[in-house]
Amino acid sequence: MSDDAVVRPRPEAAVTLRPAAGARIEGGFWGDRQRVNRDVTIPLGGERIRESGAFANLEAAARGAGGEHRGKVFADSDVYKWLEAVAWERGRAGDDERGRTGGDDLGRPYAGDGEGGRSQAGGDGLARAYEEAVALVAAAQRPDGYLHTHTQLTGREPYSDLASSHELYCAGHLMQAAVAGSRALGDDTLLRVATRLADHLVKDLPAGALDGHPQIETALAELYRETGARPYLDLAIRMVTDRGGERLPLKGHHGPGIRQDRVPLREATTVEGHAVRAMYLAAGATDVAVETADADLLAALTRQWRDMVATKTYLTGGLGSVWYGEQFGGPHELTPETAYCETCAAVGSVQWSWRMLLATGEAAFADLMERTLHNAVLPGISLGGDRFFYVNALRVRAGANPDDRRAAARGRQDWYGTACCPPNVMRLLSSLDHYLATGDDEGVQVHLYAPGTIRAGGVLLEVETDYPWGGRVELVVRETPDHPWTLALRIPAWADGAGVEARFGGGDQRADPGVDGRTVAPGGYHRVRRVWRRGDRVTLDLAVRPRLTAAVPRLDVARGQVAVERGPLVYCLEQADHPGVIVDDLCLDTNPGLRDGSPVTGLPAEVVPVVARGRAHVHRADDAGFPYRTAGAPREPEHEGPVALTFVPYYAWANRGTGPMTIWTPMH
Amino acid sequence: MSDDAVVRPRPEAAVTLRPAAGARIEGGFWGDRQRVNRDVTIPLGGERIRESGAFANLEAAARGAGGEHRGKVFADSDVYKWLEAVAWERGRAGDDERGRTGGDDLGRPYAGDGEGGRSQAGGDGLARAYEEAVALVAAAQRPDGYLHTHTQLTGREPYSDLASSHELYCAGHLMQAAVAGSRALGDDTLLRVATRLADHLVKDLPAGALDGHPQIETALAELYRETGARPYLDLAIRMVTDRGGERLPLKGHHGPGIRQDRVPLREATTVEGHAVRAMYLAAGATDVAVETADADLLAALTRQWRDMVATKTYLTGGLGSVWYGEQFGGPHELTPETAYCETCAAVGSVQWSWRMLLATGEAAFADLMERTLHNAVLPGISLGGDRFFYVNALRVRAGANPDDRRAAARGRQDWYGTACCPPNVMRLLSSLDHYLATGDDEGVQVHLYAPGTIRAGGVLLEVETDYPWGGRVELVVRETPDHPWTLALRIPAWADGAGVEARFGGGDQRADPGVDGRTVAPGGYHRVRRVWRRGDRVTLDLAVRPRLTAAVPRLDVARGQVAVERGPLVYCLEQADHPGVIVDDLCLDTNPGLRDGSPVTGLPAEVVPVVARGRAHVHRADDAGFPYRTAGAPREPEHEGPVALTFVPYYAWANRGTGPMTIWTPMH
């Protein structure tokens, strides 16, 4: 098993938790998504990126002459993110090929070649494509280490237009791909390219230079972690510190905040501006904070994270409510229909929260990660893995203007001219195993629940679960040291009524002395400390069942409405399940009797819908007139009914055509 | 009194109503706005337009050489709209100078020079500025009649980039200014320029050519009405007919609808795309429909207007909910905080509705005009007349991102780089008199209530009122023919409890046989037919008092909330009146006891606020966390209270600094 943590603080870093030595998802909810990612999305992504001209740009740069650059200035980053995804994916396949410790019963073997011919890049094809692309990247690099095809092909002076050029943004993604290649494959080919570029930056980047789009900060920190080269961390520190000094030129009608350059991070009290940039920068700043033991910076980031969660986060975990500039709105400005919720922002949010979790060990960070993964990252990719959302609306109404090019009205797309999101999901899915668990001197902490194995500090845990469809999670100790250690299990904040049972000694069920009877408190970690033996078994029941969720009064767009959630999943009403009525008209009965439903047509059989009693508002003829009326007049909404409402997980929406959809539903 | 109707269908046009021969606002609510427009806004606008380089462009074009063009491609239109405003304003001043028929007691004389030195362009200054600008426009016109300074200065081929160049848009505004000059001043200098340009269009415009921004259609129709030159109407007909054939190239990520080129007008069932373009085109199409007696086209426009009112109109009358492309959203997509509600769209809506009112005589069109004038046009200009809103948000929340450049977060602006809105308000205010009333063979129809005089078909009415602050409108017959005629008074749809009284024969009060006792039905015209005598007096009481307004269920963003209205005015809660609490937290008591309040600090004394009983939602410490919570838990919102709520007219907001504001308030 390679040491393949996606984030790996240095031994001296000021962190509370450290990534588990290894964790592996085997099937289940996320395993299925990883399989689709490997079999469909990654091969398709390679093709789309090739079609976009991004490989051609590298080829042209490798030839050394100038020439036409195709696509966006940040086209290189699509290649790098795809390479990162392939590296993690090949690393997981390699583990399988080498055999794993977890025993034969741990799930189906990983077999990239098992369905040969299904994908060009699968298995050997994937390895070949990876190695060719890595060689191409290496060839495109200038002898002096510089690499950015748009700059090279257009003949612009390097680092002369950093506000717009995305040179450092691309460099950062190269570094992350290189670290993945090194950790997942033990291959330092790309790492050599990345360090040569990083050395060029250290040497030649003008003093005070910042990229318009943060990303390189966290990449430099990780490259430092991988190589030990302190100048990379120093450069990241400098960039995190300089940010917010209004050093960058203004863009369009925007102020400096759009480029994260209005308020220094150490002074900021909230997140603002472009949501993806904010997340990437915050992730890098967290890396800097822990590597330099900068408690003030970490406190500032904690403050910003909390404010973001309290005032600028959609129920799904999605971020960004302003289309203009792809940015955060004001506090509580979380309109569902105009939600931007860029898929990349959700990926960035997971990255930041993971780093905060490592730094602090606080469950709230893992709670947001789980919410975001299920409800803000995953909606960005179709169930088939071949169509995408860049923007994730939380409401689409009937009769949406067919000429309105906002994403929700158009449905999922095959690809995007700005294709940052699809490969971002690819790399996150292919490295998702690394976010499951951590280890520290005390023991093992399990943050996300998926079937598979977790290895940390001499412990090997086997996890069995059909979570999130069911709430039952079985954890079996397969290897353990002789000394006592603590198993910490995250109990999500929503998991009222969660319980734990344990069977020790491989047989009799005995009360766990660390458990208060059957229930455990939500919103933290339930800890069991003991001398463990092989075969010890802990059963967690997260009490997954449908529930109604309301918003605080300041969240005016949700007033008078509720959302349906079930476990970590946010649900929605979709038109496909409601023939004969329009989703816009549906409302819940005051006593809606939420319960799990039978599988719905067109979605995989394992998807558990939630059914409820509802009605449809009636539109009488006079409703066709001015839609405002004197209140208090005896014209309360009339209803047709009853209507059986079917809620489906929001991540699964828009897989059966695009139509009206809402996550908020009025009560009566 | 010049024959100065702003819209004047030809005698043979298929209209139901015809503009009154003359109407004149004397003081009162709108008279005050006109005074500020004349004394402050128009002079200031002339300066701002000069500073923008628009006059310099004309000067450069007049010199005949190419050269730098300053500002936007449509900069010429700012000059033309300003000239139109000045023409109407000078026409009104000229009436005063010549003396008027209404008697000395009809209001204060119009005296542009009365406060000499206050404005450079006032009185004689205004006349001089007008004549200089007209001469400059004439000089800038090419010998062959072509005129568009951007095209002339950049050397681009005329009509070669109509999708973007705004050549015809500018030409249309020139024509409207020229018609105003002719009608208001009897001056045909600009009219000669306009007809030479129109002739150039008729001769040289490529077949099928359309401007990306409709506007010229209504202008060509009016130029035809003014000159009788049928080719101008024919060109307008052709443009209205060709529209919707996807003839224009696409723009950015938009479909053809953004340029009103997706669905032919005769087939369209709703309005879509760029809201200002939609309104201007619809106005021109209505002109075409009545001048050609095209009942099918009028029916299509009626259908589109009704759908717009039913599904795409804010409570204020504002139009356009999508920032991206300044366009209409889907039906019921009317989010207050992201309202675009461009001031120009409101001006265009008034222009369209007026044309529909002339065509059909239906009160609903006048109802929307009144709503829009008070609540969507007027908010676009400060009470002092010197600061502007291009975009009109209907909600601003506490803690708005200071780096968010959307208008509401920035407050009113001195001027705009795209300065279409301020001069649009100027020309509408300076011609507002023309929208008050119409005449037909039956008599006189009064649509808007303002103190002043109305002349139509041998009738001279004097109107006295402090509407909209009070609901009482006195109409006195000052001149009348001997034969019977009908006085038709619009009773707004909101005016439940309106009543009419009459005193005939100049003395005794007698029951009016045309009135059912004291009350009249809202939402139409109350008609009184008789042989009138001088001194006959009709008193209308529009029952202006505060009321609560709710939205239909589909309008989800207003669920659980109400708005306060009073007469034609939409009210809002503004932070300035609520020290110690935040507007975002305010809610109305279930029994709020709405009543008129005393004048509020910082607004003119005549502004009637509405006060009510309310409370403030309490934000406890746990509200600082994730803003979503399981519903049904015993954590209903807690309140502080009582809080005295003060609602002020929305048009008057943002005159005391910018802060939180809302037109929708939750009930409890």
Distance between the termini of chain A: 55 Å
* Low-confidence regions of chain A: 97-121
Please give the most extensive interface between any two protein chains, plus how many residues each contributes: A-B, 79 and 80 residues
Whole-number radius of gyration of chain A?
25 Å
Secondary-structure arrangement, i.e. CATH architecture of the largest domain in chain A? Alpha/alpha barrel
Number of strands of chain A: 22
Number of structurally distinct domains of chain A: 3
Q: Figure out the total of helices of chain A.
A: 16
CATH class category of the largest domain in chain A: Mainly Alpha
For the biggest sheet of chain A, the summary is: 10 strands, antiparallel
Strand content of chain A: 15-25%
State the helicity of chain A in percent bands: 25-40%
CATH topology of the largest domain in chain A: Glycosyltransferase
What integer is the average pLDDT of chain A?
A: 90
Tell me, what's the shape of chain A? globular
SS content category of chain A: alpha+beta
Biased composition (Basic and acidic residues) (chains A, B): 93-107
Organism (chains A, B): Nonomuraea rubra
Protein name (chains A, B): DUF1680 family protein
Domain Non-reducing end beta-L-arabinofuranosidase-like GH127 catalytic (chains A, B): 25-90, 128-432
Account of the 3D structure:
Two copies of one chain form a homodimer. The first copy, chain A, is an alpha+beta fold. Chain A folds into three domains: 18-435, Glycosyltransferase, CATH 1.50.10; 437-541, Immunoglobulin-like, CATH 2.60.40; 546-666, no CATH class. In chain A, 34% of the residues lie in helices and 16% in strands. Chain A is built from 16 helices and 22 strands. The first copy, chain A, has helices spanning 28-52, 54-63, 75-98, 124-140, 149-154, 162-165, 167-185, 189-204, 216-227, 230-242, 275-291, 295-311, 343-360, 363-377, 407-410, 421-430, and strands at residues 18-19, 22-25, 395-396, 437-440, 443-446, 452-456, 459-465, 472-479, 485-491, 499-503, 524-530, 537-541, 546-551, 561-566, 569-574, 586-588, 595-596, 610-617, 628-630, 639-649, 661-662, 665-666. In chain A, strands 3, 13, 14, 15, 16, 17, 18, 20, 21 and 22 form a ten-stranded antiparallel sheet that branches. In chain A, strands 2-6-7-8-12-10 form a six-stranded antiparallel sheet. In chain A, a hairpin with a 2-residue loop joins strand 4 (437-440) and strand 5 (443-446). In chain A, helix 7 (167-185) runs antiparallel to helix 8. At the A-B interface, helix 12, strand 13, strand 14 and strand 19 of A face helix 12, strand 13, strand 14 and strand 19 of B. Strand 13 of chain A pairs antiparallel with strand 19 of chain B, so a sheet runs across the interface.
